[in-house]
Amino acid sequence: MSPSLKEAEFVILDTETTGLEPESGDRIVEIAAIRFRGKEKIAVFENLVDPKRNISEGAFSVNGITQDMLRGAPEIKEVLPKFMEFIRGSCLCSYNAAFDLGFLNNELNFLGEPRLNGLPVVDILKMARRLLPGLQRYALSSVAENLGVARKQVHRALEDVELAAEVFFRLRDIAESNRVIPYEEFLSLFGIPYP
Fold first, then answer.
1. Under CATH, domain 9-190 is a member of which superfamily?
2. For the chain, is the Cβ count within 10 Å smaller at the N or the C terminus?
3. Is residue 1 pLDDT above 70, yes or no?
4. For the whole model, what pTM was predicted?
5. Which of 11, 45, 53, 13 is nearest to 29 (CA)?
6. Which is nearest to 125 in space by CA: 106, 108, 109, 101?
7. Nearest 5°: phi and psi at 13?
8. What digits encode the pLDDT tens for the residues 100-122?
9. What's the CA gap between 25 and 48, in Å, rounded?
10. What is the pLDDT of residues 50-103, one digit of tens each?
11. Residues 167-188: what's their mean pLDDT?
């Protein structure tokens, strides 16, 4: 029997990267996640990651992460196993989930590990598009502003997870405003296949 939506454990995650294209060699430089049961925060994961390559000017202009900040940070081979343990048994959530999962799968491949599989994945962007039709922009900052979330997007992983979590819970409340949605139905409405 699947858990109720309020009992299910959700891990909301975000990554910062050296660029936009994992297939071209871009790598994760920061990963963060918060695990929730209902709306209760039960665990936090946050790590800078030494990508063993330079950060593109475009990525630096967005996230402000410098090579100096990454000096001495662990490599992905140290961080990813801990992250995989952190997410075990949860429903993964991310804003534009295909982006983050694409990078996670690329890193797993780089380490010779199998791709992510078996965990349900909810895309908060998909939730926004379905529940807030007609917005001019669906960037996380725009959706947050539309929902009255005061927190600003800063393009650092943990802060953006906290913003995405506020957006997620407000959208989930909208989805449930007329009726209680069973967990399985929630996944069918807002889940995505593995990229």
1. Ribonuclease H-like superfamily/Ribonuclease H (3.30.420.10)
2. N
3. no
4. 0.94
5. 53
6. 101
7. -130, 160
8. 999 999 999 999 999 998 899 99
9. 18
10. 999 999 999 999 999 999 999 999 999 999 999 999 999 999 999 999 999 999
11. 91
155 is catalytic: yes
Amino acid at 104: L
In whole angstroms, give the CA distance from residue 4 to residue 108. Answer: 31
Structure tokens at 14: 């975000």
Task: Find tokens 């996944």 and name the residue.
Answer: 187
Q: How far apart are CA 158 and CA 153, in angstroms?
A: 10
Instruction: Please give the Cα distance from 41 to 145 (Å, whole number).
Output: 23
Active-site residue (options: 37, 129, 151, 155): 155
